[in-house]
């Protein structure tokens, strides 16, 4: 809130918005799935339901609901904006610093539905980013580029408004490039001037006045501001003054009230639910999307209707709630559901990092989250255009630990009956039934599950029939496997340490029981690399724990194979090797599985390019392995350290994606 004292306007809004609490409560009763409801007013007053303690940041709290993604999305229509920055010699010093800060704040009022360009001008106008020759989407990435370029501007020369406005109108009236095609705006930041550039407006904007011009007089000066006021009023805009840094935030966002007037006059026709990108909720709910709708002041002032937006209503939806509506377990371990917005940004995707704190809206494009494939561009375009359909693509997906590539998705579904033997059986908790208690201890969870099923029929509305039937069948089959097959085998004869079976329904059985105590694989088969890799592999899949150091002894490896395309049988074997030749077993990701050389036994699980870079390079040159490179757009990078030495072969090979060319 920009008012340092509680003004009558704020007190009045606190009073009348109190009635919203009854509406919030009634909404929650009608729809228990509602998480948080919020109202943000045009003056900065915010009401949340349910109430929650405010999370005070470690630094100065600059929270303003009018700068939150959901408020910006709901408060105005999409915009095409050109920001003109006067960089003549008269704006040097403090005035230039204020202008830079003001432009940065102005960029923060834009969303991904807007298009923008920033130009500096004195005698001549030019884009601050030379490669941005036209309006570009106001996404997080582009706004960061603009902000950096704005900070590097220097003041010199004399002011020529005509050059700046000529540049801006050409940008806005160019219909051959992507744009919002709604509001057209010019924002002029200057210290003042005498020229009104009337002939430019007559040429480009009059009499229809399709472009609004907002002017900002920045800094402490004694220049005549009448020309700036005339420019704004003659072009359906508004004039603002920014004398100090304290006036920047409020004055760079009040233009939204002006843009909201046509929406108010349009009434219910302009009331459409707008959805935000994925963003981090300010009160700790996590990653959410918000449905927003503007709230209009429909009162009359004499003979004229009020044209002000009162604020924006918003309803938060957590990503986990959306995921619960998707048929994840019907698609198989290598199948997944993804969703994108009209800009191509991800709403749901397994590669969307939900546990990372994002200070800004998440704008991860679908193509950035996927392994590169030209046909995926077509999928993205058809989804944005709203065209239904289906497409079959032979592609690769990343493994869970992101060091391997596995083939495309598979889908399975089975039904059957239940047998459980506690102590050697793991069951990953899925939402089989709504009121099933989640116990941290696996044995306790199994006992609770059995007790729950005894007292509740499987066809109850409390349970997911598909998951229950699949669980019953898989449990019965692996029980037969353990009691009729594994029990009669002498593992020592084969040199096996243990056997285990993981199923599509989430049940994993380990034999013998004593090995279950040291079981450290993910209890959810869908999250296990050995399971996902085995499903689409016709032969055996060898795997070892990924290691980066050499401080751990490797004594066993996993060998898995898909059985009936659903069950994964994994055998742990002791490595015996011959010493008369170099013998390596490398998995399809280029990681060492076993070696007959004792000095390499501690390197099991390490990328083979680090074990023997010359041999790995030879395998690559002979097309035994192929390189697949991807980028993590949601990761942060450490500052690069300077080095005067060239990269070694190991450096060139390390941390690259490798796949066996012979496998697919």
What's the SSE blueprint?
Layout: H1 8-16, H2 20-30, E1 37-41, E2 46-49, H3 69-75, E3 79-86, H4 94-107, E4 115-121, E5 125-127, E6 136-137, H5 140-151, H6 161-172, E7 183-190, H7 198-204, E8 211-218, H8 226-233, E9 239-242, H9 248-251, H10 255-266, E10 274-275, E11 279-280, E12 287-296, E13 300-301, E14 304-305, E15 309-318, H11 319-323, E16 339-340, E17 346-348, H12 366-369, H13 374-384, E18 397-398, E19 405-406, E20 425-427, H14 442-454, H15 465-485, H16 491-494, E21 496-502, E22 507-511, H17 513-516, H18 529-535, E23 541-543, E24 557-563, E25 567-573, E26 584-586, E27 592-595, H19 608-611, H20 613-621, E28 625-628, H21 649-653, E29 657-660
Parallel strand pairs: 3-4, 3-7, 7-8, 8-9
Antiparallel strand pairs: 1-2, 1-15, 4-5, 4-6, 10-12, 11-12, 12-15, 13-14, 16-17, 18-19, 20-22, 21-22, 21-25, 23-24, 24-25, 26-27, 28-29
Family: Belongs to the calcium channel subunit alpha-2/delta family.
Pfam family, one: VWA_N
Subcellular location: Membrane
Structural overview:
- By secondary structure, this protein is α+β, with helices and mostly antiparallel strands.
- Among the domains are: 8-68 and 268-317, Beta-Lactamase (2-Layer Sandwich), CATH 3.30.450; 399-574, no CATH class; 584-590 and 604-637 and 646-664, no CATH class.
- β16 (339-340) and β17 (346-348) form a beta hairpin.
- Mean pLDDT is 79; it is low at 407-424, 549-555, 562-577 and 643-664.
């Amino acid at each position: 809130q920009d008012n340092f004292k509680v003004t009558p306007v704020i007190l009045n809004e606190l009073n009348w918005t109190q009635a919203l609490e009854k509406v919030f409560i009634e909404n929650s009763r009608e729809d228990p799935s509602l998480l948080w409801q919020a109202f943000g007013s045009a003056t900065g007053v915010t009401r949340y339901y349910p109430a929650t303690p405010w999370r005070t940041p470690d630094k100065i709290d600059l929270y303003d609901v009018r700068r939150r993604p959901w408020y910006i999305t709901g408060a105005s229509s999409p915009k095409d904006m050109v920001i003109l920055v006067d960089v003549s010699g008269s704006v040097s010093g403090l005035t230039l610093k204020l202008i830079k800060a003001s432009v940065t704040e102005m960029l923060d009022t834009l969303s991904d539905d807007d298009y923008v360009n920033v130009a500096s001008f004195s005698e001549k106008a030019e884009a601050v980013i030379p490669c941005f020759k036209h309006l570009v989407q106001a996404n997080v990435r582009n706004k960061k580029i603009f902000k950096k370029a704005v900070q590097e501007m220097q003041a010199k020369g004399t002011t020529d408004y005509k050059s700046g406005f000529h540049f801006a109108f050409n940008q806005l009236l160019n219909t051959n490039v992507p744009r919002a095609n709604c509001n057209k705006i010019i924002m002029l930041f200057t210290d003042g001037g005498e020229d009104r550039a009337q002939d430019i407006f007559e040429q480009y904007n009059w009499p229809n006045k399709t472009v609004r011009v907002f002017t900002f007089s920045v800094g402490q000066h004694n220049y005549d501001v009448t020309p700036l006021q005339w420019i704004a009023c003659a072009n359906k805009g508004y004039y603002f003054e920014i004398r100090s840094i304290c006036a920047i935030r409020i004055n760079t966002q009040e233009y939204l009230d002006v843009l909201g007037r046509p929406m108010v006059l349009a009434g219910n026709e302009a009331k459409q639910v707008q959805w935000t990108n994925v963003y981090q909720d300010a009160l700790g709910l996590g990653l959410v999307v918000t449905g927003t709708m503007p709230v209009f002041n429909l009162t009359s002032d004499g003979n004229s209707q009020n044209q002000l937006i009162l604020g924006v209503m918003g309803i938060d939806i957590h990503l986990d709630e959306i995921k619960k509506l998707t048929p994840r377990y019907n698609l198989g371990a290598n199948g997944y559901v993804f969703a994108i917005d009209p800009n191509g940004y991800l709403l749901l995707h397994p590669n969307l990092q939900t546990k990372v704190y994002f200070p800004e809206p998440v704008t991860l494009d679908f193509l950035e989250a996927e392994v590169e494939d030209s046909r995926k561009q077509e999928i993205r375009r058809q989804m944005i255009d709203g065209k239904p359909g289906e497409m079959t693509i032979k592609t690769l997906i990343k493994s869970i630990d992101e060091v391997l590539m596995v083939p495309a998705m598979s889908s399975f579904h089975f039904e059957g009956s239940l047998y459980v033997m506690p102590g050697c059986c793991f069951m990953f908790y899925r939402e089989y039934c709504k009121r099933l208690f989640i116990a941290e201890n696996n044995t306790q969870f199994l006992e609770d599950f059995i007790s729950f099923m005894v007292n509740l029929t499987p066809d109850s509305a409390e349970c997911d029939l598909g998951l229950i039937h699949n669980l019953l069948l898989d449990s019965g089959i692996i029980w037969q496997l353990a009691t009729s097959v594994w029990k009669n085998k002498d593992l020592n004869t084969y040199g096996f340490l243990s056997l285990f079976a993981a199923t599509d329904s989430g049940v994993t059985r380990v034999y013998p029981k004593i090995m279950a105590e040291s079981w450290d694989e993910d209890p959810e088969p869908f999250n296990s690399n050995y399971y996902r890799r085995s499903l689409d592999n016709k032969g055996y899949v060898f795997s070892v724990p990924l290691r980066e150091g050499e401080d751990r002894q490797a004594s066993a490896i996993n060998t898995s194979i898909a059985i009936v395309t659903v069950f994964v049988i994994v055998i742990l074997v002791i490595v015996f090797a011959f010493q008369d030749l170099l013998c390596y077993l490398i998995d399809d990701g280029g990681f060492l599985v076993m070696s007959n050389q004792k000095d390499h036994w501690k390197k099991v699980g390490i990328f083979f390019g680090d074990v023997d870079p010359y041999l790995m390079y030879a395998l690559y040159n002979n097309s035994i392995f192929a390189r697949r490179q991807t980028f993590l757009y949601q990761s942060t990078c450490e500052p690069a350290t300077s080095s005067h030495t060239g990269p070694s072969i190991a450096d060139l090979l390390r941390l690259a994606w490798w796949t066996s060319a012979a496998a697919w």
